[in-house]
Write a structure and sequence with these properties.
heterodimer; A: mainly alpha; Arc Repressor Mutant, subunit A; three-stranded antiparallel sheet; 4 helices; B: 179 residues; alpha+beta; 6 strands; globular
C-alpha cells in the first residue's frame, strides 16, 4: 500500500461507497457527511470515479435494467486505502493538537 | 420569442463568456443554442440558470463524451448547446451553486486541455508564415505582406496560450501548498 495522502474528494467518495450509490448520491452524501462543507463538483467527481475504477478501489454495480444511473461500491483495496488514510490523519491530528496546545488563547 | 445576439469570445475567454451568459440569465434571457458567434436566448425567470462552459477531449457525440454528459445530467445539469468540443451546460440556480470542478487538479487539467487545443494552431500559423515568407520572397515579392496574416494569427493565439498558461501556473503554485 502506497503511503500517500488521499485527496479530500477521493476520501469522501470512498467513504460514501460502503453502500452502492450513483454519482449524484455520492455528491449528496459527501455534503451531508461534511455538514455542507465538501461540495464535489460533477466534473471533478466524474474524473475521480474513473481513476478509482481503474485503480480497482471501487467497482460499478450491475444495476437494475430499469435504472440507467450507474452505481458504484468500494472494494477491499479501496477499504484498505481508507483505513491507512485514517491512520495517517490520526497522526496528523495527534501531532497537530499536541504541538498547538499553547497557541489558542 | 427567440432573441439572437451576435458576440464573440476567444477560447481563452471562456470564463468571461460564462460570466456574460450568467448576466444574460440574470436579465431573464436563457441560452438555448449556440453556433459560431451566434447566441440564441429564450425568456426565463431572471437568474433562473447558471451557465458553465467546458471543453471536452472528444466531440460531444463521442461515446466517452456522451457518457460524461449523461453523468452531468444525472447531477441536475443540462446541456444546452455545443460547438466543436465545447459544451454549454446550465443548472437551475435554485439547486445551488454550479461548478464543474471543485479541486485544483481538475481545474488545471481543463486548462491544459484548452492549451493543447490552441498551441498547435499557433505553431501551425507560425510555420505557414515562415514557409510563405520564403515562397513569396522568391516567387512573388510584391505579395510579401500576405504571409503576415498568418504571423498575426500566430501572435494572437500565442497570446491566448500565454493567458491560459498564466492561469495554469497560478494553480500549480497553489497546488504546491494545498489541495
Amino acid at each position: 500500500m502506497e503511503n500517500i495522502a488521499l485527496t479530500e474528494a477521493v476520501f469522501y467518495i470512498l467513504l460514501s461507497l460502503s453502500e452502492p450509490l450513483h454519482g449524484y448520491g455520492i455528491m449528496q452524501n459527501a455534503e451531508k457527511l461534511s455538514n455542507g462543507r465538501v461540495k464535489l463538483a460533477a466534473g471533478t467527481l466524474y474524473g475521480a470515479i474513473n481513476t478509482l475504477l481503474e485503480k480497482g478501489w471501487i467497482t460499478s454495480v450491475p444495476g437494475d435494467s430499469g435504472d440507467r444511473k450507474k452505481e458504484y461500491v468500494i472494494t477491499e483495496s479501496g477499504k484498505k486505502a481508507v483505513l491507512s488514510e485514517i491512520e495517517r490523519l490520526k497522526e496528523l491530528v495527534e501531532n497537530g493538537e499536541k504541538l498547538t496546545g499553547g497557541w489558542k488563547k | 420569442m427567440r432573441k439572437i445576439i451576435k458576440k464573440m469570445f476567444w477560447a481563452w475567454e471562456f470564463e468571461k463568456e460564462e460570466k456574460w451568459l450568467n448576466e444574460m440569465s440574470a436579465k431573464g434571457l436563457a441560452l438555448v443554442d449556440y453556433s459560431w458567434c451566434r447566441y440564441s436566448f429564450e425568456e426565463c425567470e431572471p437568474g433562473e440558470y447558471t451557465n458553465k462552459i467546458q471543453l471536452l477531449e472528444h466531440n460531444p457525440s463521442h461515446p466517452e463524451s456522451e457518457q460524461y454528459i449523461r453523468f452531468m445530467e444525472e447531477t441536475g445539469a443540462e446541456q444546452v448547446a455545443s460547438y466543436m468540443n465545447w459544451v454549454y451546460f446550465r443548472k437551475k440556480t435554485s439547486e445551488g451553486p454550479f461548478e464543474i470542478f471543485s479541486d485544483i487538479e481538475s481545474k488545471m487539467s481543463h486548462l491544459i486541455l484548452i492549451k493543447k487545443l490552441l498551441l498547435p494552431i499557433a505553431v501551425l500559423n507560425l510555420g505557414i508564415f515562415l514557409m510563405n515568407m520564403v515562397n513569396f520572397a522568391i516567387n512573388y515579392p510584391r505579395g510579401l505582406w500576405i504571409p503576415f496574416i498568418n504571423l498575426a494569427c500566430a501572435a494572437l493565439v500565442f497570446f491566448g496560450v500565454h493567458r491560459i498558461q498564466k492561469k495554469i501556473n497560478a494553480l500549480k503554485k497553489e497546488r504546491s501548498i494545498r489541495e
